[in-house]
């Protein structure tokens, strides 16, 4: 009977974060949060499940995320809901719901947590993945665009990660529609050569063609008009100013006029931080300005800008830049020493990560368990130690063995 029970495994593209990976995960989140707080961000947690309409209106119906990748279903109350594919929409929903658009002022939030996209899993691309993101409301100044880029740079540098910053401007409601028209005009003569998706994109959101991964489509773009040559005066001035601030602060970047981002809400500044060390899914972080998004979700026009880092992709690159902390193993050689060992272990744990083994064992057994746990210091008490008020210790790394007074341990 039991043999017929099938083992249940985690779903495709979803995984447990455990062991050394979970240590790195919390290490990243703790330190990235510290940096975000230093820049004036406070923590926000929004629900994982939201109305599907939220993502249709924000991320956009022409995006692959909404079109193909949503975990969407009807709940028991007949509501059309969806697991969040990204974090920005929920934060904007909160901003509008709490009428902060009417109150005015500047708001800065950071968040981290799981996002869900029904993509084809591969290295660096999961169906459940985690983001660390920041969103700013109420700041129109292009200095904030630079500030956000400088902050991401600080986070990546803290974790010792090398990157290339790709930068573009997606214009505004004045210059972008005109640019789209010229792009459609250029691409119309190649309709038969463009892939099926790009033919659909020509009708829904032609700039998505710029992002197509198919080589043939990319080759047709060589002589296409570029958004950076078609910006209106205001967008051009802002873009030049941003480049000037970045230059002044020694931040290198590459202009990529094909960088359109996978979400529809951006205008003006759009950027991605990429690494060539993690294979084809090379974007570690992405973001930009979304000055119309609050309006799209029914609020009063408020400028916004933000970014998100893909935590799994980043963890592949993180070099933990602190010394490995001590992990002490405390064990007893006989039952009579357990009370003392327990007392010592509790004291030690106030300052150092400590494991207390309750079962009396011989030396070799204790060392075996300590090794499996990843402890680097083994401390043992037996009859002699108890009598002399000492404790035997061994540093596994240096192999140094000393017996010290309990008070000095
Ligand atoms: P995004 O570019 O879609 O932007 O995602 C941000 C980052 O999440 C990517 O650069 C990547 O590192 C990671 N990521 C995306 N999809 C996957 C996946 N399937 N598996 C693993 N990692 C992935 C956004 O989500 C925007 N909400 C960012 C933003 C915030 N813009 C303004 N504010």
Automatic annotation (TrEMBL):
CDD domains per UniProt: HisRS-like_core
Xref: Pfam families: HGTP_anticodon, tRNA-synt_His
GO molecular function list: ATP binding; histidine-tRNA ligase activity
Superkingdom, taxonomy of origin: Bacteria
Main subcellular location: cytoplasm
EC nos: 6.1.1.21
Segments crossing the lipid bilayer: none
Domain Aminoacyl-transfer RNA synthetases class-II family profile: 1-318
GO BP terms: histidyl-tRNA aminoacylation
Residue numbers binding L-histidine: 86-88, 117, 131, 135, 261, 265-266
Cellular component per GO, a single term: cytoplasm
InterPro entries: aa-tRNA-synth_II, aa-tRNA-synth_II/BPL/LPL, Anticodon-bd, Anticodon-bd_dom_sf, His-tRNA-ligase, HisRS-like_core, HisRS/HisZ
Entry's localization field: Cytoplasm
Protein name: Histidine--tRNA ligase
The encoding gene: hisS
């Amino acid at each position: 009977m039991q043999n017929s029970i099938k083992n249940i495994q985690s779903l495709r593209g979803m995984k447990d974060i455990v062991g050394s990976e979970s240590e790195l995960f919390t290490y990243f989140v703790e330190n990235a949060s510290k940096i975000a707080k230093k820049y004036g961000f406070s923590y926000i947690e929004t629900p994982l499940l939201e109305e599907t309409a939220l993502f249709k209106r924000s991320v956009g119906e022409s995006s692959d995320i909404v079109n193909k990748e949503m975990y969407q279903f009807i709940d028991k109350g007949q509501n059309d809901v969806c697991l969040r594919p990204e974090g920005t929409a929920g934060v904007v929903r909160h901003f509008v719901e709490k009428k902060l658009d009417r109150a005015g002022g500047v708001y800065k939030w950071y968040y981290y947590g799981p996002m869900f996209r029904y993509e084809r899993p591969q290295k660096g691309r999961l169906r459940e993945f985690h983001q660390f993101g920041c969103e700013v409301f109420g700041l129109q100044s292009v200095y904030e665009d630079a500030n956000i880029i400088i902050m991401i740079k600080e986070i990546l540098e803290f974790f010792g990660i090398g990157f290339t910053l790709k930068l573009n401007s997606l214009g505004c409601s004045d210059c972008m529609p005109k640019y789209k028209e010229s792009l459609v005009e250029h691409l119309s003569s190649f309709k038969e050569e463009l892939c099926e998706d790009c033919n659909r994109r020509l009708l829904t959101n032609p700039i998505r063609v710029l992002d197509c991964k198919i080589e043939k489509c990319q080759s047709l773009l060589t002589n296409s008009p570029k958004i950076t040559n078609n910006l209106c005066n205001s967008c051009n001035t802002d873009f030049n100013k941003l480049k000037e601030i970045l230059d002044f602060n020694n931040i290198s970047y590459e202009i990529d006029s094909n960088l359109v981002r996978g979400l529809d809400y951006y205008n003006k500044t759009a950027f991605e931080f990429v690494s060539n060390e993690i294979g084809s899914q090379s974007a570690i972080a992405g973001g930009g300005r979304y000055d119309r998004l609050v309006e799209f979700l029914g609020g009063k026009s408020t400028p916004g800008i933000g970014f998100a880092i893909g935590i799994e992709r980043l963890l592949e690159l993180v070099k933990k830049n602190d010394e490995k902390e001590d992990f002490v193993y405390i064990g007893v050689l006989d039952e009579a020493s357990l009370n003392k060992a327990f007392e010592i272990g509790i004291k030690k744990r106030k300052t150092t990560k400590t494991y207390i083994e309750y079962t009396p064992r011989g030396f070799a057994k204790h060392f075996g368990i300590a090794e499996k746990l990843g402890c680097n210091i083994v401390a043992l008490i037996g009859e002699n130690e108890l009598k002399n008020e000492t404790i035997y210790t061994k540093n596994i790394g240096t192999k140094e063995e000393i017996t010290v007074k309990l008070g000095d341990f």
